[in-house]
Amino acid sequence: MKRCTKMYENKYKNIQSTGLKDLTNFLNLIADLDEPLELFAIGGTAMVLKGIKESTKDIDFLTTEKYDKIKKLFELAGLKEESKDKICNIWRLNNNDANIRIDLFYDGSILGTSFPNDWKELSEKISEIGKIKLYILNWYDLIITKIARSETRDIEDIIAIIKSQKLDFIFLKERYYSIAETAIISDFDYKFKHLEREFGERK
Questions:
Q1: Phi-psi region of 126 (alpha: psi -120 to 50; beta: other; left: phi over 0)
Q2: N or C end of the chain: smaller count of CB under 10 Å?
């Protein structure tokens, strides 16, 4: 857990920015395999797909599929597996001059944070690409994963999401504390209070 979590601290996972075109190319590559697949975009990936930001250094998806199926599909598509860890399953895609890192998460859980049973129901389906059903992880749970990390860029992203999607801050707070007390989130109370202060100052 600590090893994987550290990958998210104070550095980006891709040197180059990844925009909508790169994300679309990756999704089309997987869709060409003509296999049913559900992918839930999280983090900066979700923000790019929804037009909240133009690019991201992080390419992350949560999936309802099993690891064995993902491994088979990604290898057929030419991706290379960097870490088999189910907590943070890392793949690399060589795309022209770019070496793009893609992280996969499983079982309704991201880095030790397990979501309530309604996480999928609250998520938004945005498109179908071949047999891929593409969703945005519901914004509340997506934000909770960013609070868990709480880097400066995460706080900026959270505030941008809350404002653009007109989210209910009280509902976010209630959902966060219902999850955080049993999740592996260090200093969970301090992190939310820090977000509250930052959000309050920018209303």
A1: alpha
A2: C
Q: Which residues pair with 14 in a beta bridge?
A: none
Domain 2-201 CATH assignment equals 3.30.460.40: yes
Q: Considering only the C-alpha atoms of the chain, give the largest distance between any 2 of them, rounded to a whole number of Å.
A: 49
Mean pLDDT across the chain: 90
- The residue ranges of every structural domain in the chain are 2-201
Q: What is the pTM of this model?
A: 0.89
Q: Exposure of 128 by Cβ count < 10 A (0-12 exposed, 13-18 middle, 19+ buried)?
A: exposed
- 105 closest CA partner among 127, 122, 130, 83: 83
Please check whether residue 57 is in contact with residue 44, taking contact to mean a CB–CB distance below 8 angstroms: yes
The answer to whether residue 96 scores a pLDDT higher than 80 is no
Q: How far apart are CA 67 and CA 88, in angstroms?
A: 11
Label residue 190 by pLDDT band (50, 70, 90).
very high
Q: In the structure encoding, which two tokens stand for residue 164, read together?
A: 């653009």
Q: Which residues does 29 contact at the CB level (< 8 Å), separation at least 6?
A: 77, 78, 93
Task: Sort strands 60-63 and 98-106 into parallel, antiparallel or unpaired.
Answer: parallel
